[in-house]
Each structure stands twice: as C-alpha cells, then as structure tokens.
C-alpha cells in the first residue's frame, strides 16, 4: 500500500536522548521541552515520576504495583509541526545497560552540563556511546542563573575530557552569579535574563541587538565590553560553525541557559530542531542502508522491560521504527524466530499516559507486548527478511560472584541466570582457572543486581548469595600477540570469558588497563562486543 504522507512524516520527526550526569537538570529540561510542545500544561509531572522512582526499594514496589510502565519511557509531542520523540535515559540509581541501549535508538543527543560542575562521569560514559555511533551531539550548559565556571573553561573541559571540539551558538553575559542573558551569534540579538521566574509557563523575553546604541547601557558597560572581547576571541580562535561536522558528530554546538528559569530553552529547541536530522537510513546486513521513506516497514528492538510483578509475566519490547509505516495488527517477519508474527496491542508513550498506537512512522518508539519471543536487537519487517546489525554488549562495571543459597537449586539457578543474561538483564562471566562452579554477574548499574536477585527469587524460586568482586572494568580481547595466559598483566587483573566463551580481561582500575596495553604490544581490547547466542558461536 502506498503511503503518500510517509516522506513528510519522516521529515518532521526528531528522535533524541538527553545525556547528562544526575542533577544536571535533565528532568527540568525535559519538562520545559514538553511544556513548549503543549504536552503538559504544568511542569511537574516528569519530576513527580522521577521522585517516585528514586529509592531502590521504592522502585521495586512501584514496579510491582504498576507493572511495566514506570521505567519504560519515551515521550512524544508536537512542536512547530515537528514530531519529537525524547528517549528517556535513566540516570540515578536506575542507570543500567538499558541506558546505553536506548542511545542506539536515538538519532542525536542533547548533552546537558551543569555550569558549575563541567563534564561529569556519567556524561562521559554516555557520550562515548554516542561517539561510537557518530550521532550529532548538542551541548546545553545549564544553571547559568547560578555561579559557575568560566565559559571558555567549560569549552576546554569538553575538548579535553571528551575529545570533541565545540562551537558556541550563543554566549553568556555576566556570569558569576550576576547573569544578564545570552548573545545569539547567528542573529546578533541579546536575550535579557530577568530572573525570578521559576517558570511554570513560557516567558516573554526582552531582546536587544548588540548593534543597538542602547545596548551597553542595557546590559552594563563592563559586561558589554567583555562580551565584545569574548566574541572577537571566539571569532578568531574558535571553531567555525560547520553543520557537516556537527551532523557527523565531530563538533558540538554549544548553548547556555537555565532550565528552571525557562531561559534559553526555546531558542535552543528551535535551533536544535532545525540543525539536527530527521531519521536517517540504517544499515541492514547484506542489503545496506534502508531509507526511512522506503515503503517497506522495518524496525528493531532496543530494550526489553520485564514485568516485575510475578503475577504478570508479560514483557514489553521497545521498538524503533526505521522505515515504512507501522500499523496496528500488521503481520511482520521476526528475525530471531525467523517466522511471521502479528503485532497486536502496541503502545506509544506520552508524557503521562500510555496510548494505543494505530500508526507509527520512522523515528517513533513503540512498545510491543512480548509473550517472550523478542530479543534485544531483533529486526522485524514486512516483505523479504532483513536484519539490522545487533545491539552490542556494553562493558559492565560492577561484578558479583553469585551462587544459589541452596545447592539443590543449582539447576534452576543456572536456568534463570542463563535466561536473564540472554534477555540482557545482566551479563555473565567465568574465570576458567577458578573452576567450573563460579558464576560472575556483571552489570552497568548496581540496581541491576537487585533486579537479578529479585527476579531469580520471583521467577525461578532461587535465593542467591552475592559476593562483590573488586573489578570495575571488563574488556574483550580482540587480538592478542601471545597466548592469553602469557600476557603481562598486573596482579589484580583477571582472565575470564564471557557467556559465549569469548576471552576477556577484568580490571580493578584504569591504570591496569593502560599497563596491559603498554606491556603487550599488539594487544587489542574492546569496550563493547557483539551480542551473540551460544548457537551463533558454534
Ligand atoms: P536531573 O534530572 O538531571 O537529575 O536533574 P533535575 O532536573 O532533577 O535538577 C536537579 C536540581 O537542579 C533540582 O534542584 C533543579 O531544580 C535544579 N536545576 C535544574 N535546572 C536548573 C537551573 O537552570 N538553575 C538552577 N539554579 N537550578 C536548576 P533540587 O533542589 O534537587 O530540586 P527542587 O527543589 O528544585 O525541585
């Protein structure tokens, strides 16, 4: 069936994630964006949801009561004829491998930085995943109403820590606790900050041209002089605005503002939407790139959310539409079962309510009720089968030795561990030298360990004991100059293998990783690996 509206629907879609360290203001910014889109009348609802999932134990309770809805969020809204999908990247205690996987479904990222803190740990991790995919990254420096670091210093921080050049699109005036506003380099207009408004609604902002003779008096002569000086320096020594470099992820455009005060958010949003791309072709194995406007429907599963309520074993598979039109009830080919399935009961995700979706277009995220057939990275499509390359495994950072409390339950334990690792809830490792009985669970976020314990008990009837291991990094061995047991490694480094028997090294610190490289010329280590099933290895 022809869909005359397909190309236009693709063109107006923008699908992105906000990457940041906890407390940088992601929840606040998300709310303001939703507010502009009219998706929520009053800011506060996203925040309420965040508060609801704050503590670990609470989170378990909430998951139990509400089933699978709480952490499963992608938000969709319309703004100026754009259709925007914001992917949620859980950041506090619920930071997990899913946070990374979600980024695989995004076309671009907004990197939110607290002006007083600069680039922080979690931002670095998320940035690396965006970098792997070369997606455009837009920087928003937040909390400009408060005392923070010098903007030049923040630019340097981004370059030094993340290795990406930045290009300020606007520039702050009068920081150090006396914030006057921002100067837009593209329009030569200054937006004046009036403060005080803790922005529930949208605010009208006064603007003045930098060329207006009244400008120095308006912002203060010394701030005006400083601004002229800063702009000259940026023009001469800074990177030029280059959209090709931005779109290929080599340069990050930088914006300054204050999310709580609703200042600088709308100018940012407008520029972000016009610079960033609508969904681009994704590469399918053997077939090559598939245009989103292709009539053939394709999509892939990037996250599977299990229901924490033992009474409801259903799961939700999150799918991103990549090409064509998704229609409720359509029959598609499904890669991991190599069979045709009917997609009933799909859901889309709004700010507050889940709605049933009838039609979805490339860039949209939908949740599919999963009777247990979907796996991470699965492709579904109409017509002849195609496969998108899978979602990689991301290096875990917390490791526990796990075993069943009751050794009679070892069989159920192994079955549960195997299924949960196949589903992507955890990864497993073994150290060949330690004996066959050892089972190491590795996770990106500590809460995943609680989920493991909870689900093994609830779904497999197994209580486990956990013993923390001191490792913080795992690296897959891609190439080794000599047999692995003859590598020169620090005494705290362990040799292990992943679930499908691929060799890995487990490290306690970054220093040991560096030494492994320096002492073993030709050793190639990777932070991600292909997700493979045991069958595929044979
Ligand atoms: P997160 O989702 O990234 O973790 O951050 P969140 O939006 O919850 O913001 C973290 C804290 O930073 C909140 O303060 C929030 O109000 C504040 N914040 C966010 N944007 C700005 C900004 O532009 N300027 C200033 N000054 N503060 C900002 P809180 O005290 O934790 O919560 P609340 O009491 O304000 O609700």
Describe, in plain words, how this protein is organized in 3D.
The structure is a single chain. This protein is α+β, with helices and mostly antiparallel strands and 538 residues long. The protein folds into 3 domains: 6-172 and 238-275, Rossmann fold, CATH 3.40.50.300; 282-381, Translation factors (Elongation Factor Tu (Ef-tu), domain 3, Beta Barrel); 393-537, Alpha-Beta Plaits (2-Layer Sandwich), CATH 3.30.70. It contains 15 helices and 33 strands. The strands form 8 sheets. The protein has an 8-stranded antiparallel sheet. The chain has a 7-stranded mixed sheet with strand order 2-3-1-4-5-11-6, with helices on both faces. A hairpin with an 8-residue loop joins strand 14 (298-306) and strand 15. Helix 2 (26-36) packs antiparallel against helix 3 (45-52). It starts with 5 loop residues before the first helix and ends with a helix. It binds guanosine-5',3'-tetraphosphate. The site of guanosine-5',3'-tetraphosphate has 16 residues, from helix 2.
Topology:
Elements: H1 6-11, E1 13-20, H2 26-36, H3 45-52, H4 56-66, E2 74-79, E3 82-87, H5 97-103, E4 108-114, H6 121-132, E5 137-142, H7 151-162, E6 165-168, E7 170-173, E8 181-184, E9 189-192, E10 207-209, H8 215-219, H9 221-237, H10 243-247, E11 251-256, H11 265-275, E12 282-284, E13 288-290, E14 298-306, E15 315-323, E16 326-327, E17 331-334, E18 339-342, E19 347-349, E20 354-356, E21 359-360, E22 365-370, E23 379-381, E24 393-394, E25 398-404, H12 410-423, E26 427-430, E27 440-443, H13 447-460, E28 464-469, E29 473-479, E30 494-498, E31 503-507, H14 510-519, E32 524-526, E33 528-529, H15 534-537
Helix pairs in contact: 2-3, 12-13
Guanosine-5',3'-tetraphosphate binds next to α2.
């Amino acid at each position: 069936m022809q869909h005359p509206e397909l190309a236009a629907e693709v063109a107006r879609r923008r699908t992105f994630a906000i990457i940041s360290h906890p407390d940088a203001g992601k929840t606040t910014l998300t709310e303001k964006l939703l507010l502009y889109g009219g998706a929520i009348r009053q800011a506060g609802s996203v925040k309420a949801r965040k508060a609801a999932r704050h503590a670990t134990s609470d989170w378990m309770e909430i998951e139990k009561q509400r089933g699978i809805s709480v952490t499963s969020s992608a938000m969709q809204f319309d703004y100026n004829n754009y259709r925007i999908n914001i992917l949620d990247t859980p950041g506090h205690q619920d930071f997990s491998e899913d946070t990374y996987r979600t980024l695989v479904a995004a076309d671009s990222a907004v990197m939110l930085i607290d002006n007083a803190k600069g680039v922080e740990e979690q931002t670095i991790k998320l940035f690396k995943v965006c970098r792997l995919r070369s997606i455009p990254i837009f920087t928003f420096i937040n909390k400009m109403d408060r005392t923070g670091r010098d903007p030049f210093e923040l630019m340097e921080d981004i370059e030094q820590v993340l290795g990406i050049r930045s290009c300020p699109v606007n520039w702050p005036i009068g920081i150090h606790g006396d914030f006057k506003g921002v100067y837009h380099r593209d329009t030569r207009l200054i937006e004046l900050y009036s403060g005080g408004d803790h922005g529930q609604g949208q605010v009208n902002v006064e603007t003045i041209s930098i060329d207006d003779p009244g400008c120095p008096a308006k912002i203060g002569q010394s701030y005006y002089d400083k601004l002229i000086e800063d702009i000259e320096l940026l023009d001469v020594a800074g990177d030029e605005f280059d959209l090709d470099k931005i779109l290929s992820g080599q340069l990050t455009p930088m914006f300054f503002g204050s999310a709580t005060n609703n200042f600088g958010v709308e100018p940012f949003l407008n520029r972000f939407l016009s610079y960033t791309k609508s969904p681009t072709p994704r590469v399918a194995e053997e077939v090559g790139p598939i245009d989103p406007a292709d009539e053939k429907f394709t999509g892939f599963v990037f996250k599977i959310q299990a229901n924490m309520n033992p009474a409801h074993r259903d799961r939700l598979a999150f799918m991103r539409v990549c090409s064509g039109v998704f229609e409720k009830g359509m029959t598609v080919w499904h890669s991991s079962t190599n069979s045709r399935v009917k997609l009933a009961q799909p859901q889309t995700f709004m700010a507050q309510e889940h709605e049933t979706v009838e039609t979805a277009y490339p860039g949209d995220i939908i949740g599919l009720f999963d009777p247990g057939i979907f796996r991470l990275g699965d492709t579904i499509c109409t017509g002849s089968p195609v496969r998108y390359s899978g979602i990689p495994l991301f290096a875990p950072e917390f490791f526990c030795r796990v075993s069943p409390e009751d050794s009679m339950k070892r069989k159920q334990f192994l079955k549960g561990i195997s299924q949960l690792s196949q589903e992507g809830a955890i990864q497993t490792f073994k150290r060949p030298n330690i004996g066959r009985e050892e089972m190491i669970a590795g996770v990106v976020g500590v809460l995943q360990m609680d989920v493991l314990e909870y689900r093994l008990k609830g779904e497999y009837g197994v209580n486990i004991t956990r013993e923390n291991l001191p490792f913080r990094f795992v690296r897959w061995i891609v190439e080794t100059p000599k047999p692995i047991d003859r590598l020169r490694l620090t005494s705290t480094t362990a040799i292990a293998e992943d679930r499908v028997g691929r060799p890995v090294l487990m490290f306690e610190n970054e220093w040991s990783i560096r030494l492994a490289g320096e002492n073993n010329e030709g050793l190639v280590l990777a932070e991600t690996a292909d997700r493979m099933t045991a069958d595929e290895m044979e």
